[in-house]
Amino acid sequence: MAIFLNIYSQKTLKGKVFDANNNNPLAGATITFSGKVGATSDKDGMFSIDCDKVSRITVSYVGYETYQHSIKNCDDEMSIALVPVGHILEDVEITATSNQNKSLLYQPSSITKLSVTELKRGDGLFLDDAINSNVPGVTMFRRSVSAGQQFNIRGYGNGVRGTNGVNSNFDGQGYKVYLNGIPITDAEGITLMDDIDFGSVGNVEVVKGPSGTLYGLAIAGVVNLKTIRPEKGKTSIGQDVMFGSYGLQRFTTHFQMGGEHSSLLLN
Question: What is the pLDDT of residues 211-259, one digit of tens each?
């Protein structure tokens, strides 16, 4: 009586995944082969997979370039150095919306957007001319000796401190104003825009109603002001001249330079 035993030994491929710059182990790196996940590296960056039917593996990790390697000898322990991705992202804009259609007409909130065309349509001297003639339900008051620039959005916004408080001509109630994402309205609700050169504003976005609360305490709405953004890779210089009644003379010189990751605007 003869007994034959066929014994097959399972080959295991071992390796370590680490950062190419500082040699720190990378825990959680994914090792895939044949389109399937074979293993993930442990806290020490170590991993092991069955090498019998594997000829090529792919190692990936978030923030690092993907590494591919052809296996020639399963007995060799691999040392895989992943290189960090050196790309710099461009501006990332995140918009909170429940509709896939990004058109303003299909947004679940009341938004009015003014471009340079609307801002220059009037006499171009004051921002309130463009706001009052192009944004329904919103009134902007011009700076005077005894009162500041204020917005009134859907009848709400004049500076009144509570129901029994005193009226302040320099306060704006229930709304917020931003310039390039920086809040102009302080914690007490006071908005001073005397130092803003409205000639350098190229985009105005008015969010009306309760959707303004996404920006904080702004139940009346939010006014987003954005300065003119120079075109990338272009440099230009120009001058605007305006003459009008009562001795009006206005000269505006502007210099724009757009770089790869920065821009410069002089107005």
Answer: 777 777 788 889 999 988 888 889 999 998 888 889 989 898 989 998 8
> What tokens were used for 137?
């339900």
Expressed in angstroms, the distance from the first to the final Cα of the chain is 102
Cβ neighbours of residue 156 closer than 8 Å, sequence gap 6 or more: 173, 174, 175, 219, 220
165: left (phi over 0), alpha (psi -120 to 50) or beta: beta
Model confidence, pTM: 0.56
Phi-psi region of 74 (alpha: psi -120 to 50; beta: other; left: phi over 0): alpha
Separation between Cα atoms, residue 44 and residue 238, nearest integer Å: 60
Contact present, 207 and 190 (Cβ < 8 Å): no
Q: What pLDDT, on a 0 to 100 scale, did the predictor assign at position 95?
A: 61
Please state, in angstroms and rounded to a whole number, the distance separating the CA atoms of residues 226 and 183.
Answer: 12
Which of 38, 49, 61 is closest to 15 using CA atoms?
A: 49
Helix (H), strand (E), coil (C) string for 102-166: CCHHHCCCEEEEECHHHHCCCCCCCHHHHHHHHCCCEEEECCCCCCCCEEEECCECEEECCCCCC
- Select from 157, 161, 162, 163 the least CA-distant residue to 176: 157
CA–CA gap between residue 167 and residue 163 (Å, rounded): 10
Q: Exposed, middle or buried: residue 72 (CB in 10 Å: 0-12, 13-18, 19+)? A: exposed
pLDDT tens column, 58-94: 888 988 888 888 887 777 788 889 988 876 667 777 6
* Average predicted confidence (pLDDT) for the chain: 81
Across the beta sheet with 12-19, what order do the strands follow? 46-50, 12-19, 78-82
| 4, pLDDT greater than 60 | no
